[in-house]
Amino acid sequence: MSKEKIAIVTGGSRGLGRNTVLSLAARGIDSILTYHSNEAQAGQVAALVAETGRKARALRLDTGDTSAFDAFVNDVRTTLANWGADRFDFLVNNAGTSHHNSIEKTTEAELDALYNVHFKGVFFLTQKLLPLIRDPTTSDR
After folding, report:
1. pLDDT of residue 1
2. What does the DSSP assignment read for 98-121?
3. pTM, 2 dp
């Protein structure tokens, strides 16, 4: 199996996530990055990574929709296998949403959406990916 380091960066198509993916590539680390709706933008990030000689794969993921996590994990497994790996090394839970309402006017639905992306999604996505995260204290390379 591959000894290359691999990261998963949620929300890796723009902002801090994009910068994280590009910084990881500059350090010799391949990335699986996620995007919510802008596939073209995510593809641009993957292309920039390729220019560094590293690998990147953009996968669609709504981190607020836990029902999508099993399919995402299967896509991660496929990507890892295509790269000659069965595990990855780093998980960067970066995906998020902006909240544009005041505390006084925030609706229950808005708060639920924030909770689903920023807490529930992070928790359950991490839980689903745990079996694929390389344990650096073992010799599972």
Report:
1. 59
2. ---S-TTT--HHHHHHHHIIIIIH
3. 0.92
